[in-house]
Hints:
Strands 1, 2, 5, 6, 30, 31, 32, 33, 34 and 35 form a 10-stranded antiparallel sheet that branches. The radius of gyration is 22 Å and the shape is globular. The chain has one domain (about 15-525). By secondary structure, it is mostly beta strands. The chain contains 6 helices and 35 strands.
Amino acid sequence: xxxxxxxxxxxxxxxxxxxxxxxxxxxxxxxxxxxxxxxxxxxxxxxxxxxxxxxxxxxxxxxxxxxxxxxxxxxxxxxxxxxxxxxxxxxxxxxxxxxxxxxxxxxxxxxxxxxxxxxxxxxxxxxxxxxxxxxxxxxxxxxxxxxxxxxxxxxxxxxxxxxxxxxxxxxxxxxxxxxxxxxxxxxxxxxxxxxxxxxxxxxxxxxxxxxxxxxxxxxxxxxxxxxxxxxxxxxxxxxxxxxxxxxxxxxxxxxxxxxxxxxxxxxxxxxxxxxxxxxxxxxxxxxxxxxxxxxxxxxxxxxxxxxxxxxxxxxxxxxxxxxxxxxxxxxxxxxxxxxxxxxxxxxxxxxxxxxxxxxxxxxxxxxxxxxxxxxxxxxxxxxxxxxxxxxxxxxxxxxxxxxxxxxxxxxxxxxxxxxxxxxxxxxxxxxxxxxxxxxxxxxxxxxxxxxxxxxxxxxxxxxxxxxxxxxxxxxxxxxxxxxxxxxxxxxxxxxxxxxxxxxxxxxxxxxxxxxxxxxxxxxxxxxxxx
Length: 530
């Protein structure tokens, strides 16, 4: 049921959901989730879960804590219109590609617009994103599609774009990268101010670009984790039919995994250490230790014209040596999970793949072009879609949240886990055998936000100042808040919205959704959309 298209008549609903239990009065905002709503292409279907047609789902919380407002709607994109006509030529992992298809994707830059991965806010615009530079703007209230949205500034340079842009909580800037394929392939890293104006940071030439679904960010560094799943662009441009887009990539473990450490201020790669080969979809969080904490405080308080300072008092970016970056990742041994996500395998229960382990990578920068990587396992159980509190992005934190399952995974996750990344202790939540989706932590708002300059919330892209910069502000601990997740009840044939208490990791409330929601990808909680 989780890998089936929506039932007829449920593709556009707007209703209120009665709540069982207790939703905290302070929870006022909207969770917008993105993911497949249909797998149909005329009389056929797409081959892969990743190619399901984008549908937005919104859950709004307000003054009436006994009800939740729910609505869902397909994105009206070129891809959606083509599938309605039975003309879908292919996507991320569906169908064969001709040379013309690959020229469009790799050279001409006419990517597909099935923006089914996540929703984000860029300036005043709300965008649905996928792994191409086609960004689809939508109305945050009605979920109606507005159309393609391009950022201001330099035009997109790549044919692939990371869907998981990162928000610097100290400056409000958005950071992302694109991948350019060609005879001279490259990674292009850029930053954007709040209105969405792009500024180029660095271009990194590479011979064989890697597939990277996310990246790490700290106040001082961008870190691209290049797994050895790479493509030879010249091979992709040979005549004749070939497999789908992702089938052009090849697993080359002998390359190892490389970390590109990019100094944001100087706009250059200062080191690119390698470690053993592994793969991963999602970075959980990253932060700096040593003098970096002073740098972050400098940014927050505006010292040195907002540039910050290192331990020696030098402007941030002037000397990036002798630093340590802590990068937490969900890792698997190889890229087998990509093939295992075909609809035929998922529907037939043929998974048996390693679930993601939570691992910590300490990258020590000893000097220019000199860095080492230490790798430690925090939790070896199977996880997927890990998240952390937005109040702790880009800084030291304690808790990660994820889907949980047996290791190796033989079924879709039926648990959520709360992982203490300091102690390795794990708490688990289950819901009577229901399948559980990505957990989104919403921190309890700091009552002093906006009044306490020490909190630095004026630097955070949160117009209502309700997300504290530090661990729940001075009033609350890091896990003071709620965890939102969507559960699929296959016996009752509908889904539930679950509200868990962040500290006890037990159910606080639930609301029945009037239909079954196919398994989706990612959500984002917007406190300003109350």
